[in-house]
Write a structure and sequence with these properties.
GO terms for molecular function: iron ion binding; iron-sulfur cluster binding; molybdenum ion binding. The protein has two domains: about 130 residues, Sufe protein. Chain: A; about 150 residues, no CATH class. Helices cover about 45% and strands about 10% of the residues. It contains 16 helices and four strands.
Length: about 350
């Protein structure tokens, strides 16, 4: 996993303070307000006090290992200390505690610190939960990031449509390749695929497309670092790749699974990160290529939340308030109409 140092791995794997305290003296959240629902990471801290001292602290995370590590660092820095001392638990201090987060992951420490400070404010105000507002610099554009008129996108879709190929799959892979190209850097790293995988996608869905356009050396306005793939999310996705009677995996479904795992590591909605134009396109693609995964998510949970919740459950972590989704006050954050 790119950017995961040994120290960050250690904190990300530390389950000492994972969970939810019963009848807490302070509760702070970020990413769980109605207007934030499903947009990105979510963090919740609960505190138990002994006078002004933080006697116990627990956190719940929906997000990447960097965010979990940041929360674990906060717990270690604050438990046993006073509320006043805990004000010093800033993103910079968290970053230093972890030995330095990758620059593109600094927002993980910022969100964790926001949720923790909200919990401190809650403890100071009679235990009423406080929902911190996601700062503008951490917000994501919720609109499609691929323009139908993009020359690269159009060039892909202007190739001949091979027999037996779904147009929806061509549109999906065209958007994915276009977005990866826009982001700059090595395209295969942006997709979690090998060069031969990209060649196969081009050959099957866009025959005759000039492969050199994919590796064009045209200058990009900004190159964002490739995402760090969560191995548990990747494992979950690959476990749903169908096999033929000889036990061979459906190769294109496997490529899609790898791409989803890679793009799920990015902030924001998964369908946006996949280069799709509408949310329902992601569910439709999963139904076509990973049908058992579509069946497993039988309640229609948002896909990124579903995948990371499964990964969290695999490792004994807890993000949910309630063991029963229907009874949970956060239901609307995980489930939403496909057109929402």
């Amino acid at each position: 996993m790119q950017g995961y140092t040994e120290k960050i791995r250690k904190y990300a794997a530390d389950e000492t303070h994972i969970g939810l305290l019963d009848k807490p003296d302070g509760t702070g959240e970020v990413g769980l307000r109605d207007q934030d629902k499903g947009n990105r990471l979510a963090v919740r801290f609960t505190l138990k006090l002994d006078n002004e001292l933080i006697k116990k602290i627990r956190y719940q995370v929906f997000g990447c290992g960097f965010t979990i590590a940041a929360c674990a660092a906060i717990a270690e820095l604050s438990e046993g200390h006073s509320l006043q001392e805990s004000i010093q638990c800033t993103p910079d201090l968290i970053n230093r505690k972890l030995g330095g987060l990758p620059e593109e992951r600094n927002y993980c420490a910022e969100l964790a610190a926001q949720a923790f400070q909200a919990a401190v404010n809650s403890a100071r105000n009679g235990a009423k939960p406080v929902a911190a507002e996601i700062q503008p610099e951490a917000e994501e554009d919720l609109n499609p990031r691929v323009n139908r008129r993009d020359p690269f996108y159009r060039a892909l879709l202007d190739t001949d449509i091979p027999p037996g190929i779904f147009y929806e799959d061509r549109q999906m892979f065209a958007g994915l390749l276009t977005l990866a190209k826009q982001e700059g850097g090595i395209m295969t790293n942006r997709l979690g695929l090998k060069s031969t995988d990209v060649d196969k996608i081009l050959a099957i869905y866009f025959p005759g497309f000039d492969r050199r356009k994919v590796t064009s050396s045209e200058p990009q306005p900004k190159q964002t670092p490739p995402p760090g793939i969560n191995p548990d999310v990747l494992s979950i996705l690959l476990s749903h790749v169908p096999c033929d009677q000889a036990g061979r995996k459906a190769h294109l479904a496997e490529l899609l699974a790898k791409a989803i795992a890679c793009r799920a590591a990015l902030p924001g909605h998964l369908w946006v990160s996949m280069g799709l134009l509408k949310r329902p396109q992601l569910t439709a693609a999963i139904r076509r290529h990973l049908p058992t995964l579509a069946l497993a998510n039988n309640k229609g949970m948002r896909w990124k939340r579903y995948l990371f919740k499964q990964a969290c459950d695999m490792n004994g972590g807890v993000m949910c308030k309630s063991p029963n989704c229907a009874d949970c006050s956060d239901y609307h954050l995980c489930f939403a109409p496909e057109n929402a």
